[in-house]
Every structure is written in C-alpha cells, then in structure tokens.
Specification:
Length: about 475
Amino acid sequence: MNDAPRTYDVVVIGSGPVGMNVADRTRAAGLSTAIVERELVGGECSYWACTPSKALLRPVLARADARRLPGLSDAVAGPLDAPLVLARRDEATSHWKDDGEVAWLDSVNVDVVRGHGRLDGPRTVTVATPDGGSVTLTARLAVAVCTGTTAALPDLPGLADVRPWTSREATSAKEVPGRLVVVGGGVVAVEMATAWQGLGAQVTVLVRGSGLLTTMEPFAGELVADGLREAGADVRFGVSVVSAIREDGQVRVGLDDGGELTADEILFATGRRPHTDDLGLETVGLTPGDWITVDDTLRAPGVADGWLYAVGDVNHRVLLTHQGKYQARIAGSVIGARATGESLDDDPWGAHAATADTVAVPQVVFTDPEVASVGLTAAAAQREGRRTKVVDYEIGSVAGAYLYGEGYRGKARMVVDLDRGHLVGVTFVGPGVSELLHSATIAVTAEVPLERLWHAVPAFPTISEVWLRLLETYRG
C-alpha cells in the first residue's frame, strides 16, 4: 500500500450502492474521486441484505404462488431443495467476493482505498489500511459519508455469548436451523421469518407490540401475519424477550409473560443504528454514534463551509437502498454543480433536492402476501391535517386475480387529498402486487389529477385493473 498522502476533489466513505452512486456521479461531473471501504466493495445490500434476502425469498414465494394453482399445486407439494436455494443465494452474492464491484469502479476511474476511514478534521480522511499502515486523503471539495447502518441489539445480559443472528447472519447462514426465534415485527423480521419457514425451519415470531409492519396500513400487517401462520409459523404479539442463554448448542429464550422457548438460533430484528461510532465525527463538531442531519441537498448544515455530505441510511431520512441511491444521484449532481459554480435547483422537485424522501417513498415487503406502498398512510395523512378520502378495494374481486390461483386474498387502498384532487398514498397487499407499485409511485410523485388518472386504462385481465375499481369506488 502506498502510504503517501493523496488529494482528490471528492472522498467517499463507504462503498455500498449509495457510495458507489455518489462516486459515479461525481466522476461523471469530471471530479477526481476516491472511495474508502473497510469490508466488501458493494456494501451491506449486496452481501447481507437486499440481494441475499431476495435470493432466499424468491423460491419460497414462487412455490406459494404455484400452490394456489390447480394443475400445478400437486407438482410443488414437497419441500424446497434448501441446499440448492442456499447455493443460488451464494451465487447472487458472488460468494462474498467483490471483484466485480471493484472492476466496475475501476471502469469509471474511481480509486478504491481499502481500510477503515475516519474523518480527521475538515476535508480530511485518515484510512487505517489492512497492512497496518495509514494513508491520509484530502478532499478539495467534498467528503460524502455513506456508511449506512448496523443492527441495533437489545441490552440483554450475556447476549454476546448467545451469538444471536442479526440480518447479516440471517441472510448468510449456511444451513437451515431446525427452530428459529425471530424477535421483531418490521420488514427484516417478516421477510426472514417467511424465508426460513419456507426453507424448513420452525419459526416463532415474537412481537412486543400488537401488530406487524406498524408504519404501514394496518391491514398489511394483518394479512402478512395470516400468511405466516398459514405457512406454519407461530406469531405472538404483546410479548418481549427478557433473557437468552445458549447451552449445548441451543438457545433458551425467556419471555416477560413467564414463558420459555428453546431454539437453535435467535434473530433480533429490532431496528438499526447509524454506522458512525468510529467515524471521527467529533473532529468536525458532530457527535459520534449519531445520525448525521442533512438538508434536502444532502449536505450537513452542522459542519462549517459546507463540505460534508451524508447520503443514504446514515442520515436517517429513509432507510431503503433505492431511496439512498436516489439521494446519491442528487448529492453527486449537487457536488458537481457547486464545483462549477452552477446555481442549484433545490426547490421542491428540483434537480438538486431530495424531495421524494418526504413525499413519495416506495417500498416492497417480499412476504406472502407481498406488500407494496408509496406515500402516506391514511393515518399519516390525517396527522398532517389533510382532508382526505380513503378508498379500499379487495384485489381478489378483480378479474385478473383469477390468474394467480384459488382464493386470492389482497387489498388495495388509495388515499386522496380532496383539496388538491390527487393521490397522496397507495398501498397494495397480495400476490404479485410489487409490479403495481411503480404506477402508484408515478401517480403520487407527479400529483396526477384523478380526472386524468381515469383515462389511464389498465389492461385486461391483469390485477392492475384494481386501479379502475378504486377510481370507480371513489366516484361512487
């Protein structure tokens, strides 16, 4: 490793999809860029989150869909071939090797610096390299922190000795556990419960609150809970874990109601915290371990001279990969514009403002049934003081639902802002609904008037006809 100090226009800390997109956009703007990575280039999403989790889930969901189709259901009655599913997951993650990602960065002329990067005062990043040395990187224009988040574990005595699963272990496990306890009711919890139950584990889901997916419409969590139970999982609400001990390879789990469970593994999917503990934030006037607050141009206003950007999960605006990549595209263009003295278009929906973070965030939960949502829930719209009309429709009543097999269960909801005459939120739950989401995202983002949306004709027979039924129901 060359330990000589180096100077770039932009230094990016963290090479997940967010950091890679920032680097790509700044290089496209003609700025010299280096990216610092202490683990695998490609980041959490590529190796321990989005990619491996969906590789595990796809066979489970495809089988669930097939089992609803007469003529096909008997052919898929047996168990999944778990070793083959895990092998395909390993291929999806490139066997946890990052050669391809490094080659791509090389192709766009971004320098990769391996090691743990820390801020060391204004525009300076010191990298502790794997060989025990260090190198100092100086940024002429900007440093972008794209370090994401890590799992937040509860404060239970002796938990480290239990060796609990977090999302990393849940997506990279080499074999199917016989019994798995999942603690939590959010997206990671329900997706991993779906995956491992489908692969042959006996899953118990423990939820402290009264429902799943509580930031979404209530019917979403209710239908997902029904789906998990029908798949064989034990879903319990209003219960908390008070102790966990690993003995003889098994985990004994104590509950606050006095009950006890025994499992082979326990997964805590109880939230995320920012990956900023050892980032040198104190050297630039920020608090280590905190989220980094940013404005709509992704710049940290708490740092003098405006050279620090925080992009993706680390700024706590939206903890979703695709939304982080959206922020990265904006941050890269902002840094490029400021470098050339170009005036910023940072008004809402301008080229240099991450407006969608607060208005039109799309999300898919890959469970059986799927959940797809964008914008505000009915409750969130009410909290904002909007005058709304909520329209629901059973997707199973749409002709195209027949193509998905017997007993299609699903629900659609649109939330209409009556004063402005457009949608502010849409939620779909049911098999295949993820492919409906982008149309909803466009409708919410573009504030398409309902009078115009009436002329967007859905093809027959598809479940997208639910759009027509929602609009008919709205008209009355």
